[in-house]
Fold this protein.
Amino acid sequence: MRIKRHRLYLNDDTPCEYQKSPCRGGRMTPRLLVIHYTAGASARSSINWFMNPDARASAHLVIGRDGAITQLVPFNTVAWHAGASQWNDLSGLNRHSIGIELDNAGRLQRHGNGWRSWFGRDYSADEVLEARHRHETEVSAWHLFTAEQIETTVEVATVLFGHYGLEDVVGHDDISPGRKADPGPAFPLAALRSRLLGRREDQLPRMVTTTSLNIRSGPGVEHATLNGGPLPTDTPVEIMAEDGVWRRVTALSPVNGIADLEGWVHGRYLKAPIG
């Protein structure tokens, strides 16, 4: 990937799909990258909404669940994705940031033996992470992102950081705490930040598994095991979060063909790596 004239190209000659959203402002110099989920039924429905002048909302990019990318606003132009927001010395983050929307239903509600989105679609346990949002006290259910989405987001973010010299990557919930919950605990934001910034103080704790270890959708044996597990013995992982004896981890090597497998494991079966 590369950037030419503030548009994203998949290679030297092929731009990603581009639709010109009318919901935009003037020129800006981006300093941050902001990650969102759409809380919508599909990437196409979200794109259609951002193309509607009445929406008064947009983003620079929408990434579908298959990893497909659509650009709606050039990267040097204000998109209306952040709303009332603040981060360190900056306020009104629309004027200072690039916004990426990931096609994802967001927070889900229990429905029978599964889960249901606000727009009425049902989800099975293997599509859901049960976890506490870091700004909340109760466990909620969150629609999982796909490996394709996360891989594409990492690739796009790397290109954006290299081209614009961005200072940080944050969630909508970081810049609008209490008002917004996206991208929520199902998105590995800390791992993405660590990879992009590469500063030693930003590195997450790393451990390895001491046995073949089930990986679950939430912190407890009552939560479903995830497809792709268990984690083999000596699998290196990064610790994303803690809940009692449970640890939310991201596998640092592919597990059964799945890259960046993420979920909850019992901390008793982790140890510090040697060396």
Notes: Residues 204-271 form a domain with the SH3 type barrels. fold (CATH 2.30.30.40). The helical segments are 43-50, 147-164, 172-175, 189-197. The chain has two domains: 2-105+144-200, 204-271. The CA atoms of residues 2 and 9 lie 5 Å apart.
